[in-house]
Write a structure and sequence with these properties.
Layout: H1 8-12, H2 23-34, H3 37-41, H4 43-49, H5 56-81, H6 85-92, H7 97-127, H8 137-145, H9 161-179, H10 181-209, H11 214-222, H12 232-245, H13 252-257, H14 266-299, H15 310-324, H16 328-362, H17 366-384, H18 390-420, H19 424-434, H20 441-468, H21 478-501, E1 530-531, E2 542-543
Helix pairs in contact: 2-10, 2-14, 2-16, 4-14, 5-6, 5-12, 5-14, 5-19, 5-20, 6-7, 7-9, 7-16, 7-17, 7-18, 7-21, 9-10, 9-16, 9-17, 10-14, 10-16, 11-14, 14-15, 15-16, 16-17, 18-20, 18-21
């Protein structure tokens, strides 16, 4: 289906999409997206379970051979075709538009439940002052959330007032930041919150390392189990951690790159973001295992008996540590405050993907696009998740959207780019014109061979685990997992195809010149690189002809 011919007014009017005013603002925003809850509560346990200090080796290999190469892909697509995921993918080549809508729908699902975790963390920041959970943090978390568990889970709209109020506050803050726009909202909030997050977390780590038993925990975290490197599962875990941690294939980095100035050094920026994210993960590991070492010593048990991850680490294990540690209130405020900041900057980036897509689709200015997205998302999130079914719903949706949404979308997009569209030469040449780190055969091999294999193995392993395991996921009723897990994941794919078939309105940004009033870059010519002489920006590079000998 071809795009509608724009009206004269639409053809001459530039797309007003907003922009980062500099590379620094973009880097802070990108780090804000990448550094999220998974860095703090997932990485330490994954590293510990997969070889401890030896895990750093496959982790770095995964960063260099999959994480950063995929980050460059997102940057190149968003930057060259200057649009939200659906518009950029459509401009790349028409039939791939559904990949962009798939990424948008993934962000819709994540956004509505992510706010719940931020709300919990905000409440626990206050609870830390007087260690309100007492001697039994597990029981307190259960009474605080009133969460249904296991076979008792059902659709229930029994609201939890403290969580409801905090969820409302989270969404009010999101609306305010997003209305302010790319520069005044997204980048300025990131440039405040990310330094504050780092300062708070460094203080937290320093305090945790002073606790009795801290070095026992650090020894457990960093002690290498070199034999683990022979296990394929360890390498899959390393790639999985890097993949989810860097926010690749969500459409986030693609969207942020579309707001960059045209002569930005994309590859240099990608290296900064990639290594900053991994540095924070290792810092989180030091802080978490220092605290777990104290916990183990206080209870007279081995470190492996107190290691946990995710919600169990954040809202049960850490409160127990805070309750027993000297100066526990400070540790609690710093830890949960860090979760709030990391989660909020990530949620900002997730919601921005949806806002940019709606704005591009209907040619809307910033405020109408923001309200059209954030108000329905916020109302749905507030109506559904601060309830007794909220935790179970979050658990199921998060598991399936990660395994079958993000991994599936990344696998399909990578295969499409490499083997169907054959777009890597075009993306490589766009990145190389102003990039300080030049890409060549090594990058191509990583994207074309390593990434599809790892993603395919991860998808198969997840499927076997979910289908072949004993009982149902988390002991929830089968119908609950089917409706909110399998059917939800399938609906993302079907919905993305349907949305890609809908015509773009004449007033959309699809055929408008970009924000600078410049001509749009042409679609990819399969297997063909770019050429140009004395071009001012990489966007002026055009598919190379036979005479150029480029491929």
């Amino acid at each position: 289906m071809s795009a509608p011919t724009p009206s004269a007014g639409a053809a001459t009017q530039s797309a007003d999409r907003g922009a980062f005013r500099g590379r620094t603002a973009f880097i802070f925003a990108a780090i804000g997206s990448a550094v999220g809850l998974g860095n703090i509560w997932r990485f330490p346990a994954v590293a510990y379970d997969n070889g401890g200090g030896a895990f750093i080796l496959p982790y770095l290999v995964a960063l260099l051979t999959a994480g950063i190469p995929l980050l460059f892909i997102d940057y190149a697509i968003g930057h060259r075709w200057r649009g939200s995921p659906p518009m950029a993918w459509r401009r790349l080549t028409r039939w791939t538009e559904f990949i962009g809508w798939w990424q948008v729908l993934i962000c819709v699902v994540i956004a509505v439940y992510y706010a719940l975790i931020i709300a919990w963390a905000a409440n626990y920041t206050v609870f830390s002052v007087d260690t309100r959970w007492g001697d039994d943090p597990g029981a307190f978390f259960g009474s605080f959330t009133r969460a249904l568990e296991g076979a008792d889970v059902t659709v229930a709209f029994d609201y939890v007032p403290p969580v409801l109020i905090t969820c409302i506050l989270v969404w009010v803050a999101i609306v305010l930041v997003m209305v302010l726009g790319v520069h005044n909202g997204i980048s300025k909030s990131a440039m405040i919150f990310i330094p504050l997050l780092v300062i708070m977390f460094v203080i937290l780590v320093a305090r945790a390392m002073m606790l009795p038993g801290a070095f026992t925990g650090l020894n457990a975290f960093f002690r290498p189990n070199w034999g683990a490197l022979l296990s394929p599962g360890v390498w899959v875990a390393a790639y999985g951690q890097i993949f989810f941690s860097l926010s690749v294939a969500f459409g986030i980095m693609l969207t942020y790159a579309s707001y960059l100035k045209k002569n930005t050094d994309l590859t240099g920026s990608g290296l900064v973001v990639g290594f900053a994210n991994s540095s924070f993960e290792i810092l989180a590991g030091i802080g978490v295992f220092s605290a777990l070492g104290f916990m183990a010593q206080a209870q007279g048990v081995a470190v492996d008996e107190v290691v946990s991850s995710g919600i169990g680490l954040a809202f049960i294990a850490f409160p127990a540590i805070i309750g027993e540690a000297p100066g526990g209130a400070l540790i609690g405020v710093l830890f949960f405050g860090s979760l709030v900041l990391a989660g909020f900057t990530s949620l900002v980036s997730i919601v921005e993907v949806v806002i940019s897509a709606i704005g591009d689709k209907f040619g809307l200015s910033r405020v109408p696009a923001t309200l059209l997205v954030t108000v329905p998302l916020g109302l749905f999130s507030i109506a559904v998740f601060p309830t007794t079914m909220g935790l179970a719903l979050l658990d199921v949706m998060d598991n399936w959207v990660n395994q079958y949404g993000i991994v599936g979308a990344a696998l399909v997009s990578t295969v499409a780019l490499v083997y169907l569209v054959r777009a890597l030469p075009t993306l490589r040449d766009h990145l190389n014109l102003r990039g300080s780190f030049r890409l060549g055969t090594g990058w191509t091999v990583c994207v074309a061979v390593i990434v599809p294999i790892v993603l395919g193995v991860s998808l198969i392993a997840s499927t076997i685990d979910l289908i072949g395991g004993e009982g149902t996921y988390s002991g929830y009723p089968l119908w609950f997992n089917i409706v909110f897990g399998w059917l939800m994941a399938l609906s993302l794919v079907v919905g993305s195809v349907v949305l890609s078939l809908l015509p773009w309105p004449r007033d959309s940004n699809l055929n408008r010149p970009d924000s600078d009033g410049d001509e749009l870059a042409p679609p990819v010519v399969p297997g063909t690189g770019l050429s140009g002489h004395d071009v001012a920006t990489p966007h002026q590079l055009r598919p190379a002809g036979p005479q150029d000998g480029r491929s």
